[in-house]
Amino acid sequence: MSETNETGSIIWTNAIFLFITPVLAVAAAAWHIATQPFAWAPIIAAIVLYFVAGMSITAAYHRLFSHRSYKASPVVKAIFAVTGASAWQNSIVEWASDHRRHHLYVDTDDDPYNAHRGFWYSHILWICTRGRYHGDLTNVEDLLNDPICAWQHRHYWKISIAFNVLVPVTLGWLTGDILSMVIWAGLIRVVVVHHTTFLINSWAHMFGSQPYSDHNTARDSWWLAFLTHGEGYHNYHHAFETDYRNGRSWYDWDPSKWLISVMEWVGLARDLRRVPDDMVLRRRFEEGRSRFVDDLEEWGQAWEAWKDEVTAGAQDALGKHLLSAEERIDTALRDLRKKRAAWQKAIRDNQPRDTIRSMRKACRNAQRSIADAMSEWETMMSQYTLSMHPQFA
Ligand SMILES: [Zn+2]
Ligand SMILES: [Zn+2]
After folding, report:
1. Is the distance from CB of 148 to CB of 74 less than 8 angstroms?
2. Residue of 39, 208, 238, 280 with fewest CB within 10 Å of its CB?
């Protein structure tokens, strides 16, 4: 019962560590830039280790262990267990336990980083305070039964300290400047990885777009995806949390999904889970439509005024245009679903390669034309709602 009494109390080791490291990093960077000659080696090492630590969090802690969005070979898991510890974000088991609760109870008091408690709470203060589930690992028994995760959990501090001291010191020794390497590839890199990851819990639950769902605070932010190896597409992620991708389109910056695909290609990962495109587009379509209906209701008064201003013919034309666009999308989505099912069946039935390829191409084309029709429809909706907004009425 002592745990319950401690809820809300400060975890001093975390608090001191998380407040001192950014101050030290800024001071060390300023001192180093002002007094030491510039060298590329520590900067390059810092960037490389930023990717190594950051992508161990995104591709492994998050997508592999917390969400089980793919399966990986024991070698990959063991490597990630070591490199992930270098991010200094706790063991896989504890990270995943918090994260699974975040998804399950998002935006409530049971969400460990509930964004409704403010930017700084969800960014960093939650790590410095004992939450109501502090120490409760009942939701990660699968990971505790995994020998690699259990080993990393037992030896987490030894692994993280060893990595974060040995790697920068060795690199510094090899390049002839240990201090610069410790400052840039050690201290500053750890702080940058911390705060970019933390922005997913704070910023990505406050600012950005919500194309897939507004039932929780998660938002998409393309620039944050650049800093977090793809995790910025957080609205998509909360809508489809088991998908191994966070950036769904091929052009969305998501190096974590590319790494997972490459691992699959070389046989180190398998069973990648991906939400079918027709489901994703359907969700986006329905979300847009329900938001549009909400806008219409909210602007009910304006609607009355608008009707007086615009001729009945113009209203009808616009309304019909919108409805027919919706019908077209709806039909096309159903068509894509059928095409996709046929393509999957052809794969299962071992149809000739050419047939499968042309079916896949048909799916791609259908998907592309739906995406075009949807963006046209979204523009039309925004024109429609804009024209009804009180300031135009
Ligand atoms: Zn989230
Ligand atoms: Zn997640």
Report:
1. yes
2. 39
